[in-house]
């Protein structure tokens, strides 16, 4: 990814984060946010995806509603969002990347993955508008 496009995305992410409520910032203090250009081949294989532009984000960890006191953390909780997938989704078929739509898709992706941390499934997230 070109540096100028990466910087544009990161600036939009900062704008989105600045508008999030304090509770989201508190969650991100517990569940770190990573931003990558696109998912690794390993992530794509694990999720059985062949088009890296179709993945906007992923939550790694054990959802809160599935944890027990006996659970030893195997992997830390992490939310990773992917610039390429979010930008492709935001551009849509017009292939024009609008700032407002990019911000909207960043926000949806971030809240979607944090929803997985809380144990929400795809259907629940869809019904909340975070699908």
Task: List strands and helices in order, with pairings.
Layout: H1 3-18, H2 22-30, E1 33-36, H3 41-46, E2 57-60, E3 78-82, H4 83-91, H5 99-117, H6 122-127
Parallel strand pairs: 1-3
Antiparallel strand pairs: 2-3
Helix pairs in contact: 1-5, 4-5
Brief summary:
The protein has 131 residues and is mainly alpha-helical.
Uncertain segments are none
Strand content: 5-15%
Q: In the CATH hierarchy, what is the architecture at level 2?
A: 2-Layer Sandwich
User: Which strand order does the major sheet show?
Assistant: 1-3-2
Question: Helical proportion?
Answer: 40-55%
Shape: globular
Counted by DSSP, the helix tally is 6
Mean pLDDT across every amino acid position:
88
Provide the CATH topology. Zincin-like
How do the helices and strands follow one another from N- to C-terminus?
HHEHEEHHH
Span of the ends, CA to CA: 26 Å
Name the structural class. mainly alpha
CATH class category: Alpha Beta
Structure summary, number of beta strands: 3
Write up what this structure looks like.
The protein has 131 residues and is mainly α. The chain has one domain: Zincin-like, CATH 3.30.2010.20. 50% of the residues lie in helices and 10% in strands. Strands 1-3-2 form a 3-stranded mixed sheet. It is globular and about 50 Å long.
């Amino acid at each position: 990814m070109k540096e100028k496009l990466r910087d544009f995305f990161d600036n939009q992410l900062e704008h989105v984060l600045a508008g999030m409520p304090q509770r989201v910032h508190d969650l991100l203090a517990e569940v770190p946010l990573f931003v990558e250009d696109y998912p690794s081949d390993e992530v794509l294989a694990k999720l059985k995806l062949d088009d890296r532009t179709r993945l906007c984000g992923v939550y790694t960890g054990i959802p809160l509603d599935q944890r027990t006191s006996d659970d030893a953390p195997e992997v830390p909780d992490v939310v990773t969002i992917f610039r390429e997938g979010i930008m492709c989704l935001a551009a849509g078929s017009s292939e024009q990347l609008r700032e407002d739509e990019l911000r909207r898709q960043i926000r949806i992706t971030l809240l979607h993955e944090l929803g997985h941390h809380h144990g929400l499934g795809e259907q629940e997230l869809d019904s909340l508008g975070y699908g």
